Amino acid sequence: MIWRLVAMVAGACAILAGAILVAHQSPIESLTTLIHGSLGSPTAIAGTLRESTPLLICGLAVFIALRAGLFNIGVEGQLLVGACSCAVVAVRFPGPLGMVLGVLVGMVAGMVWALPAALIKAYRNGHEVITTIMLNNVALFLTSALVSGPIKDKTQSDTATSFVAQTTRLPFVYKTQTVEINCALVLGIVLAVAMAIWLKKTVAGYELQAVGANRVAARFAGISPQKVTVLAMSISGALGGLAGAVQILAYEGRFYDGFSPGYGFDALGVALLAGGSAYAVLPSSLLFGILSKGGTALQIDGVPKGITTVVLGLLIFIAAAIRYRKVTSDA
Amino acid sequence: MLNLLVLTILFSTPLVLAAMGGYTSERGGVINIGLEGMMLMAACVGALASARYGPVGELVGGILAATVMSLLHWLMTQVYHIDHVISGMALNAVAAGGTNFLYLKLGDPAHGSGLPHLPITFFCISAIVVPFAIWIYSRHTRGGLRLLAVGSDPDKARLMGIQPVRVRFFGLLCTGVLTGLAGVELVAYTGVFTDNMTSGRGYIALAALILGGWRPVPALIACVAFGFFSALRLQLQGTPLFGAQLPSQLWAALPYLVTIIALAGLIGRNRTPAGLGKP
Fold first, then answer.
1. Is the distance from CB of A248 to CB of A255 less than 8 angstroms?
2. Is A124–B263 a contact, with Cβ atoms under 8 angstroms apart?
3. What pLDDT is recorded for position B223?
4. B148 touches chain A (CB under 8 A)
5. Given a cut of 50, is residue A330 above it in pLDDT?
6. Interchain pair A138, B256: CB under 8 A
7. Band of the pLDDT at B237, cuts 50, 70, 90?
8. Set of chain A residues whose Cβ sits within 8 Å of the Cβ of B104
9. CB–CB contact A130 B206 (8 Å)
10. 3-class DSSP state for residue A331?
11. Contact B97 A324 (CB under 8 A)
12. pLDDT (tens digit, 9 = 90+) per residue, B146-172?
């Protein structure tokens, strides 16, 4: 099996090098540009950390579902409804009250958006991937309809809500002229640690992982897979909604059409790469943040940004193949 | 009225072709959410080939590109034993990024919308013929029955001396050809490739397949229904319905909502192939 894995990695590298050569660039130079653009200066690092924050929280959302053996591809949709509802609430109630309410409403919205998928999976045995894909699209169209109609700020031409007041935003931990680090990042890190502990030290966390490891065995041990499925998807949805709310309150300040550049999908890669540990979501999301930020630098250099999405796809393939190898060698 | 009919046919054609591509893969037990990526890749390569080698080159290039993607899915799920959903997602990511990259680097903006392409009728006729051909093939021939057997219970099929890996290879080969046709149709219709031009059609085709209970002719009907709603949406844009101004997005969301309801078991019984996703 190992040679197959080597063949795969070699193939992936060949595809990338070939693509960059086709673009009339040197692969080494492109890599330097990518790293320089994402880690080369304090400003670049702060930008990378900013990109990593939604990926981290969304990655945790996908991760917790994955531990229960569920693919929550719907994080994208949950993020959208979370962000949209948070923006509406935060605009209505300025100040710290709006901040708290916005986060709560965003989480509840994300949870509600994940529930149909959870219930259909638990009680009708419909594949959660299909339902979450459908829910994603419904969320996309719903928020787009809302933001171009009822919740649009009529005083401006963009299809967007009004800006959230500065007092309602999440504060910055560290801020200079060029470098900003928001406490959203700290929140993400705390969540990762909390999740790792929760999974390891509590009964509910243990049950969740037991169902993920083997549904049938878990049922014989007296755990209800249905209940765990609904619980895991609810937590996952709430985290997805939280990611949206945080994105509004920390960075964007308003909800607009085309809000997410696909954080929910990238998060799937983040969680897969992280494997079995919640702590591993931290470096994994940072890697994706680097790719995303560095991709922008590459674009300026004349290599289309799409190449980073290709890297992401190939990384998912490789991570999944390695994961399978581990699973089978354990058995 | 005639306009609505023509639009319905135009909108349904790529959906039908892609859904049939999904059929040959999913009835063999391979979950395929990569339909979107395969179509997109076919559209991009088709557009690039069309500028150099004309309409036939477009068709061949598109089908080849989708087939490569589809066989990559086979390689990953059947040889590397990656989870089918993960492989499909990765495929979509590679297609989304790869087409953006390829078209920006190799595309010739001078051609604009004047790409030579095959007549749309060709695609429409194949969209009508293919579902019935597949229906007859899968019910009355050895190869078709083997495909269904592998999809229903791979272990039993193995005991009967059928190699699921091999049957699925041919199933996914068909998927490549059909999604390739669907992708080329999109380029032939619009005359130009744009980023993410499939815009979820692969997922809608999958939805139609599910709604049709993984059967070719009902899936065809579901596709036409979805096509009809897209056409209606275009026709009704801006006109009030029942005295209220409905946003066009609600029409767009309709196929997805109907599919969720169908999956909840509220329409008909559960017809999911029993071996879907099994090694």
1. yes
2. yes
3. 93
4. no
5. no
6. yes
7. low
8. 304, 306
9. yes
10. coil
11. no
12. 999 999 999 999 998 999 999 999 999
Nearest residue of chain B to residue A148 (CA atoms): B247
- Residues on chain B touching A268 (C-beta within 8 angstroms): 86, 89
Q: Which range has the worst mean pLDDT, B29-43, B66-80, B245-259?
A: B245-259
Span B140-145, mean pLDDT? 92
Please tell me the distance from the alpha carbon of residue B71 to that of residue A122, in angstroms, as a whole number: 33
Comparing A34-48, B189-203, B211-225, B235-249, which segment has the lowest mean pLDDT?
A: B235-249
Q: Name the domain count of chain A.
A: 1
Q: Which residues of A37-55 are buried (b: 16+ CB within 10 A; e: fewer)?
A: bbbbeeebbbbbbbbbbbb
**What pLDDT does residue B269 have?**
64
Place of tokens 């997602």: B89
Cβ-nearest to A320 among B86, B96, B210: B86
Contact B79/A4 with Cβ under 8 angstroms? yes
Contact B249 A311 (CB under 8 A): no
Please write the tens of the pLDDT for every residue from B238-276: 666 555 566 777 777 888 888 888 878 766 566 778 878
User: Most A CBs within 10 Å: which of B31, B230, B237, B260, as the mutation test of the A interface?
Assistant: B260
Alpha carbons A122 and A229: distance in angstroms, whole number: 6
Closest-approach residue (CA) in chain B for A310: B94
Q: What is the dihedral of CA B13, B17, B23, B26, to 10 degrees?
A: -110
**A145/B250 touch (CB, cutoff 8 Å), yes or no:** yes
Contacts of B81 in chain A (CB under 8 A): 324, 328
- Considering chain A, what percentage of its residues have pLDDT values greater than 70? 97
Complex confidence, ipTM: 0.86
Q: Is B247 on the interface with A (CB under 8 A)?
A: yes
Q: Whose CA is closest to A83, among A329, A206, A259, A208?
A: A259
Task: Say whether A324 and B101 touch across the interface (CB within 8 A).
Answer: no
Query: Burial code of A277-312, b = ≥16 C-beta within 10 A, e = fewer?
Result: ebebbbebbbbbbbbbbbbbbbbebebbbbbbbbbb
Q: How confident is the model at residue A331 (pLDDT cuts 50, 70, 90)?
A: very low
The domain in which residue A76 lies consists of 2-330
Q: Which amino acid is at B70?
A: S
Residue B256 contacts A where some CB pair is shorter than 8 Å: yes
